[in-house]
Amino acid sequence: MTETEIEAKVLQLVADQLGLARSEVLRESEFDKLGDSLDKTELMMAFEDAFDVSIPDDTAAGVQTVGDAVSLIREHVAAKQAEV
Amino acid sequence: MLLPSKPKFDAMSKTPRTITLRRVVITGMGALTDLALSAGGTWAAMKEGENGIDTITAFSMPADWPVQFAGQLKGWDPAPLIDFKEQKRMDRFAMMAIGAADEAVRDCGFDFTTGDPYRHGVMIGSGVGGILSTEESHGKLLQGGVRRVSPFTVPRLMVNAGAGQVSIRFNLRGPNAATATACASSGHAIGAAYHSIQRGDADLILAGGSEAAVGQLCIGTFAAMKALSTRNDAPRLASRPFDKDRDGFVLAEGAAVLVLEDLEHAKARGARIYAEIVGYGVCGDAYHIAAPDEQGSGAFMAMTLALRDAQLNTTDVDYINAHGTSTPLGDAAEVASVKRLFGDHAYKLCMSSTKSMTGHGLGAAGGIESIASVMAVVESVVPPTINLDHPDDGFDLNFAPKTAQERPTRVALNNTFGFGGHNVSLCFARFDG
């Protein structure tokens, strides 16, 4: 899965979960401004489900922007592919 | 923010503080019931003797369960009021509380963005709160552990979530609580709101209850205690209070909110006044966790205290909206208590159970039935007890069987009694200025 594919999927998930238009969500969007901490927690769960990865809580805590989430997920997906 | 000026208070003073009790009126009403998606629609349906009970469609019921029916809202969509993101944070019962509150607020004509928000409050009770969310999250917890449970679970399942969400919606910063006394929850909520306004702690309070318990957990567990009717072959005949063939209550969804307001506040803004709340009688059974004693001592005392609070005589009462759940023991105890308290007058007043039409909305019941009681004194029409084919032995009162009755009605009592032995009787009177 390429970074572009991951990014498209992440942005779509964020928009769906928060009830936003896809155009309202950017790589630069900050989770704190898009919703509250519960929204972010729920989104992290949605990312784990969608990409079949496990993101530790302390790593998730460092995610500020949608772009951060894309990078993190890319690393996890890559690590998982390397295992296989 | 400015704090109120410091009260002149001497902790050592032996002089008791005196409080002038203010009069409290009903200036707005809202409801979502299995009969209709508004207070007015629900009242109109009650007068026609309509029936809200049907086979459960909201989820798939195991075919071998003893109970396959309930009272469900028909075609209610929270979306126009509550956006997608907010819906995720709320159980159905809290969304229904907002739905009923929104109608009540529009109905009362007061703009809650004006005035001092610390004078505006909310008291919305519930029997079991967000039990549908509890059930769903527990399933996910068992399957996937903590990491699979929605982080919104706690704010959804709390029994006080209805009150909290309604306060946020309308910026109500005054008294804010939820009563949880099973089927008496709304009664206590309205009573507590009445006391707060009477004492001067608030000028306007949205009070009532909400219940969205039609799910497997609630149906299954009430069925296990054999509290529910099992008349699966004829669900619409199942809720039959006072009838000799009654076999338990019918679980129903519902929400109802009344706007209680200080009389002078209502007059000053030229509000339409439906009726006055003049009495709140409350007591406990201290007897059995889920059954009344046979004489209905709790019902007797609650009605007595409500009339004492209202400074009315038993002969002043024209209508009783009974708790009347259609259970064998509960109905008998309530009838016995009314006969004992009212004596000859028991045969002159009218007592009906609107649960024959709505089923039993648990923590919402007292709110829905307060609306029926208020409208009875507004219109001098008593809603019927449908399905009452053969009154039980000795049940010889006027239960308004099958059809509504037009009769002069100035004073109405609304009884609600909850598992746990919680008894409430509210007294409403026609407002004559």
Q: Can you give keywords for this protein?
A:
heterodimer, A: 84 residues, mainly alpha, Non-ribosomal Peptide Synthetase Peptidyl Carrier Protein, Chain A, globular, B: 433 residues, alpha/beta, Peroxisomal Thiolase, Chain A, domain 1, 10-stranded mixed β-sheet, two-stranded antiparallel ribbon, 14 strands
Which spans of chain A have pLDDT < 50 for at least 5 consecutive residues? none
The H/E string of chain B reads: EHEEHHEHHHEHEHEHEHEHEHHEEEE
Strand order of the largest sheet of chain B: 5-4-6-7-1-8-14-13-9-10
Mean pLDDT over the full residue set of chain B: 95
Unreliable segments of chain B (pLDDT under 50, ≥5 consecutive)?
Answer: none
Distance from first to last alpha carbon of chain A? 14 Å
> How far apart, in Å, are the first and last alpha carbons of chain B?
37 Å
Largest sheet of chain B: 10 strands, mixed
By CATH reckoning, the class of chain A would read: Mainly Alpha
What is the 3D shape of chain B?
Answer: globular
Helix fraction of chain A, binned, reads 55-70%
Instruction: State the CATH class of the largest domain in chain B.
Output: Alpha Beta
Enumerate how many helices of chain A there are, as a single number: 5
If you had to describe this structure to a student in words, what would you say it looks like?
The complex is a heterodimer of chains A (84) and B (433). With 84 residues, chain A is an all-alpha fold. Chain A has helices at 3-18, 31-34, 37-51, 57-61, 66-83. Chain A has a single domain (3-66), classed as Non-ribosomal Peptide Synthetase Peptidyl Carrier Protein, Chain A (Orthogonal Bundle). Chain A is built from five helices and no strands. The model of chain A has no long low-confidence stretch (mean pLDDT 93). Chain B has two domains: 25-268, 3-Layer(aba) Sandwich (Peroxisomal Thiolase, Chain A, domain 1), CATH 3.40.47; 279-429, Peroxisomal Thiolase, Chain A, domain 1. Chain B has helices spanning 39-47, 84-88, 92-108, 131-144, 153-157, 161-170, 185-199, 216-224, 263-268, 297-310, 328-342, 355-358, 365-379, and strands at residues 24-33, 53-55, 69-71, 120-125, 176-177, 204-211, 254-262, 275-284, 319-321, 350-352, 381-382, 405-406, 411-418, 422-429. In chain B, the strands form three sheets. Chain B has a ten-stranded mixed beta sheet with strand order 5-4-6-7-1-8-14-13-9-10, sandwiched between helices. In chain B, strand 9 (319-321), helix 11 and strand 10 (350-352) form a beta-alpha-beta unit. In chain B, helix 7 (185-199) packs across helix 13 and helix 10 crosses helix 11 (328-342). The two termini of chain B are 37 Å apart. Classes of the chains: A mainly alpha (84), B alpha/beta (433). Chains A and B meet through helix 3 of A and helix 2 of B.
